[in-house]
Amino acid sequence: MIELSGFAALYIFMLAAFTGYEVIAKVPAILHTPLMSGSNFVHGIVLVGAMVALGKADTFITELIGFIGVVLAAGNAVGGYVVTERMLEMFRTSGEKRS
Amino acid sequence: MSGSAGGLLIQVSYFAAAFLFIMGLKRMSSPVTAASGIKWAGVGMLVATVITFAYPGMHNYVLITVGIFVGGILAWWTGKRVAMTDMPQMIALYNGMGGGAAAAISAIELIRGVDHGPVIQTLAVLGGLIGSVSFSGSLIAYGKLQGLIRKDWRFTGQNLANLGLLAAVALLGIALVSGGGGSGFTIFLFFLLAFVLGVTMTLPIGGADMPVVISLYNALTGLAVGFEGFVLSNAAMIIAGTVVGSAGSLLTQLMAKAMNRSLANVLFSGFGGTAVGEQAATGGSMKAIEANDAGIMMAFAEKVLIVPGYGMAVAQAQHKIWELCQLLQERNVKVKFAIHPVAGRMPGHMNVLLAEAGVPYDIIYDEDEINAEFETADVALVIGANDVVNPVARSDPSSPIFGMPILNADKARNCIVVKRGQGAGFSGIENALFFLDNTRMLYGDGQAVAAELIQAVKEL
Questions:
Q1: Structural domain harbouring A43
Q2: Buried-most residue among B11, B45, B68, B385 (CB within 10 A)?
Q3: Closest CA in chain A for residue B54
Q4: pLDDT (tens digit, 9 = 90+) per residue, A39-61?
Q5: B42 vs A51, B5, B109, B189, CA distance in Å?
């Protein structure tokens, strides 16, 4: 994979931190709960890391921890998606009809 | 590796995933585009997950696939079934799982003993610590909101004890960084103490403050994921984790502010630790009203503002209330919902509950949008809410909720309060609103009362 050497990584970190702040900054309170749930889903990307960690594990103990990690991460990603979608599906204006 | 076609495909996919996550979150920040936002992010997740199977130098594919299915199916099943009122603890649970996964990655890297250099090693250890605390802390938060843990476990010198625990974990962490890996026992002890820290930090915090804590752990998990992303040189994890870390920190601050608490206050002092009971006694008496009269009052009003609280959701009265609103709208009564930032169990939770009942979001207003309108409202219907409409927050400096922004239900021409019985609210504070001359108490279960109100309006 690409090597993220010291300062390049630091720049990514800084810019990503500002991005996160700016994306949320002007959000109306009505969306706070769905948004928290949505951001909870986004850090489910940890699944990718857990897959790689398990994929490179070669002893029983690391395989065990890696397997637990993948199960937990998959739960984070899938659960986060399902509950966020369920909440957001319900937001409608007066004009729209419920399906 | 990055030169190969497979490596390039992986990089492109991770880049696309990071882009989709940010665009998805952006779309989720407006109610018009929100529903599509989660789908964008979902596509990003799917792409990143599938392409990771092509990651070079991996084995254990069967274990990985089984793990994804076990975790995914369990989460899918629980996520589809959970009631909207229980959403906050469900978010806590899924968030804790993410923290645990970040800790697992950290543990594997430490056990494998690959030398990453001091900076990356520090990030690996920090991510492990934060992930572990977020994991066990979120589980406790889940247990509390789910009603599995009822006691707020407090003792004197608790903060000091937690501080000592943190110092011990930090020392072990430093040993792991400088030792370039450390022995199996040091690693085990490090994670064990980190888990314990998450438990002891969260146990003393009261249920009312849990949303802020969940939001904080959400931000922490993001940060831990970002740190482990540095360890694995995975840009998608770094970007997604960091974005969530900072967005989550901002959300946490907004929530704490809405509850008129500082974050430090939430974390280090239990609610109710301040002396309650010295407040000035509220004068006057509560005056009851019958549902029939209340219904007529609303039917002939020009403008009715409804102030719902968590009590309404517990009584499952939101569907009936919306039915009542539609009846009133047919009589050309203007109906609006006034939502306090902490109505429900976390900011925005009440909006979700109302949306579930079918209430369109364009008649739902935030506190700062609607507060000026109470003076021109004929009726304010308070249902299941208490502290958020207590005028002592404006007037009585000795009250624990003094300074908390409230909805001005007391300024409406008439205020009808639907309430189960005569007791005090969640915080145990007497509500001066109930004793005002323009307030009438409508006693009964939220759902039953709403049904009676509907009946009263229909019979006109």
A1: 30-90
A2: B385
A3: A52
A4: 999 999 999 999 999 999 999 99
A5: 18, 25, 28, 37
